[in-house]
Amino acid sequence: MVQNLKSQEEYKYMIKQKKFKICRRLGAQVYEKCQSSKFVASTAPKGKKGKTKTLSDFGTQLIDKQRVRVSYGITEKQFRNYVVKASTVKGGKPNEHLFESLETRLDNVVYRLGLGNTRQFARQMVSHGHFVVNGHRVTVPSYRVRVGDIITVRAGSRVKGMFTDLPIRLKNYVSPKWLSFDIETMEARVVSLPKEIDSFLNLSAVLEFYSR
After folding, report:
1. Is 28 helix (H, G, I), strand (E, B) or coil?
2. Span 94-146, pLDDT tens digits
3. 102-190, what's its fold?
4. Residue ranges of the alpha helices (H) in the chain?
5. End-to-end CA gap in the chain
6. Are 71 and 30 in contact (CB under 8 A)?
7. Which of 3, 46, 61, 131 is most buried, most CB within 10 Å of its CB?
């Protein structure tokens, strides 16, 4: 048993180091674990001087693309499908359509509501069937919610530890304006479409990358 615990700790350490490496390349915002003093300390200059590599337009757009894909935790195939669909929708701007598609994924909504502290954990929560949308249990993380949809924590899941401490955990949490959440009833509602694109995400560059 001790050996198993040691192996688990080693695995967690390896995963953390891998994420730190990705964050150094793409930016701290791609993973919640990187938004800590420990990560900042690990990226502090060590006094060595070297030439800064200048990226081409293609290289810069590739970084922007990876930054968005990794942030939302989706596969290359899924992301490409989102981009293609956003590029063909009539009316509005493609980057806004892409942002709406990514933000209205059920796993992301759970994350934005503060119910999951990371998108990865929120995705697991959805996959395990803890949420009901408009009265129907949904286990597909990529399920897209729409304005007016009601998302509730399944009755059988409310006694689980991840939900029993919500009043304390979300006491000072402010969810995005396009979502509302009632802790008493554990019911959330999509009141509008998301519009405020995070400045960290250069979706226009992403669309240019895929149009090559």
Report:
1. helix
2. 999 999 999 999 999 999 999 999 999 999 999 999 999 999 999 999 999 99
3. 3.10.290
4. 2-26, 37-42, 57-72, 76-88, 94-103, 106-112, 119-127, 161-164, 166-169, 203-210
5. 53
6. yes
7. 131
